[in-house]
Amino acid sequence: MDKSNANRSVIEVRVREVAQLFNSLDPSPFREGDLDTDAEDFIVSWARELPQNDELQIVVHLPYAQVRQAEEQRLGVAVTNYFEGRAARFQQDINELLRTGRRHLWVGVTVLTACLVASQMLGNLGLAQPLARIMEESLIIVGWVANWKPIDIFLYAWWPIKRRIKLYRRLSNAEVILQTPK
């Protein structure tokens, strides 16, 4: 990693051949292909460490013959497409998480309402005080526990996914530069 100026951060990747950057099991040409898991992890881990407001630049160091192949295969476009696709995938994940959260919330509110009504009804039955109190409180606890999952989703679970989307969008906007070793 190197910082070239005040608002641009550089991620440097050194490979012997272009194929090291892409998943060897993916039959797609580079522009649609998946990055190799190790290459993605390397780039993403460096990007996480860089200042969030900086623009990113990915410098891929390759032997001269490989640079020509990378240019012909439009490596920069492939990297951009890959990270755009990953951002879109995480956006789908967050949308699904929030849909699930809304479904859980409807169930949780329904259960809470039923438990609160049942608790009030138990209090009016005139059962023995300690037993009635235990049952009333148990119903209230069950009602709130039914809301644990939606509360977790809406307060906490979506933040890490949102940060990941932002990171992948930054990476999709990164300038990809090909260089030969000096």
Describe this structure in words.
The protein is α/β, with parallel strands linked by helices and 182 residues long. The chain folds into 2 domains: 2-88 and 170-179, no CATH class; 93-162. 63% of the residues lie in helices and 13% in strands. The protein has 5 helices and 4 strands. It has helices at residues 37-49, 64-72, 75-124, 129-145, 148-172, and strands spanning 2-5, 8-14, 55-61, 175-179. It has a 4-stranded mixed beta sheet with strand order 1-2-3-4. Helix 3 packs antiparallel against helix 4 (129-145) and helix 3 (75-124) runs antiparallel to helix 5 (148-172). The protein is rod-shaped, with a radius of gyration of 26 Å. The chain starts with a strand and ends with a strand. 19% of the residues are buried.
Low-pLDDT segments, ≥5 res: 1-5
Query: Total number of β-strand segments?
Result: 4
Shape: rod-shaped
Rg computed from alpha carbons, rounded to a whole number of angstroms: 26 Å
* Overall number of structural domains: 2
Q: Which sheet architecture does the biggest sheet show?
A: 4 strands, mixed
Structural classification: alpha/beta
